[in-house]
Amino acid sequence: MICRPVLVRAAAALLFGALLVVPATATTAAAAADAGGAVTWSVQPADGAGPDGRPWIEQDLDPGESVVEHLAVHNFGGQDVTFGLTAADGLFNEDGRFTILPASRTSTAAGTWIDLVDSVTVPAGATSTVPFTITVPADAEPGDHAAGVAASVVSTSTGAGGASVGVESRVGFRVMTRVSGTLAPGATIENVTSSYRSSWNPFAPGDLTVELDVVNTGNTRLRVTGVVTAGGRATTFPSKEQPQELLVGDTRRLVVSVADVWPSVLVPVSVTVDPQVVVVSGEAPALASIGSGTTAVVMPWPQLMVLVGVSSVVVALVWQRRQSRRRLHALLDDARNEGRRSVLDAGAQRV
Asked: Which member of 88, 153, 170, 187 has the greatest number of CB atoms within 10 A?
């Protein structure tokens, strides 16, 4: 849950909803403060009897079909609370976390398929189960469609200058609908770039950072994994802590660091991505791996500096040695010449 503060002036409450972040577990809890004290609540998928343990809702429906689902709101606080209820289009943010459109934006896709009451009052310490209806339009495209439902409360406080600050805190879960028809999964890799960070130690390799866009070009949501190879080194992505899931039409910018790459001027970089169709049950449609690549221009500046330094020392030593030889040869020549003069002088005196 993220809370977004909004200024409220002249008694006009301009409240913008916080982003909904859906966790991997079935229970989502949030806390907010209002005039009556702290409010803590959770929202879970449910059936008619209450929470049913699902992390979120997945439905396979035909165009024109409807289904009734439920959400359960639990009030952990000590007072009755009226929660606002919202359904909106779903999306993944830049960090790969699922969220729904804020209250300031109007849903135009699967969020409009959900019919949900505007609010529910939950007694202290109790759970209320609320039904809602998912109705797929008759002309809906086959494939995956993302939405979410949330329960929210609004708290206000007085900010600088006496202006009221309103915060809408909301929490919920995703509602995924797969519309029947031909599934056509697909993905591409675009905009592969690289940058190199040299090691301060010229006798150690540096790190190559590769950035790429993975685009979901099909009509199903995808989970992507892959490997980047550079300079004989390979790094898999993403990490286990950051699974990458792409909705239909999504583009996700991924950054992968390949360690211990030597700066060999031209370093070939290859990227392989393995997209997998996300399914709730049954066998996922097969999807071939996709690849791309580039060539990183990596100048070995530290090594060149060392080479220049060593070369300078070698040149200096060679020059010094040659100078020493020249001086030695000059001394020997002087000695020979002096010897010849001495011999000539001695011979002249005998004559």
From this structure: 170
At 330 the three-state DSSP class reads helix
* 167-191 mean pLDDT: 95
Would you state the pLDDT for residue 7? 29
SS3 125: coil
| 3 state SS of 88 | strand
Would you say residue 19 has pLDDT above 50? no
Give one DSSP letter per residue of 278-305, joined into a string.
Answer: --SSSPPPP---EEEEEEEEE--HHHHH
Cβ neighbours around 278 below 10 Å, total: 17
The separation between CA 264 and the C-alpha centre of its own chain, rounded to angstroms, equals: 29
CA 261 – CA 295 distance, rounded (Å) = 13
Q: Tokens at residue 95, please?
A: 């960090």
Question: CA separation (Å) from 91 to 74, 114, 267?
Answer: 25, 16, 36
Listed residue (156, 77, 154, 82) closest to 117, CA to CA: 82
Q: Phi-psi region for residue 96, left (φ > 0), alpha (ψ -120 to 50) or beta? A: left
Q: What angle do CA 298, 299, 300 make, to 5 degrees?
A: 115
pLDDT in tens, 192-211: 999 999 988 888 899 999 99
Identify which has the larger pLDDT, 241 or 270: 270
Contact of 244 with 216, CB cutoff 8 Å: no
Task: State the Cα–Cα distance between residues 175 and 89, nearest whole angstrom.
Answer: 9
- What is the rounded CA–CA span in Å between residue 242 and residue 92? 12
For the segment 225-243, the average pLDDT, to the nearest whole number, is 89
- In CATH, what number does 4-179 get? 2.60.40.10
What is d(CA 210, CA 48) in angstroms, rounded to the nearest whole number?
A: 49
Tokens describing residue 22: 């859906």
Q: DSSP letter at 283?
A: P
- Which of these, 169, 165, 159, lies nearest to 8 by C-alpha position? 165
Predicted TM-score of the model (pTM): 0.77
Distances, alpha carbon 295 to alpha carbons 161, 231, 234, 237, 334, in Å? 56, 10, 15, 20, 62
Answer for the pair 228, 234: CB distance below 8 angstroms, yes or no. Answer: yes
Superfamily assignment of 187-299 in CATH? Answer: Immunoglobulins (2.60.40.10)
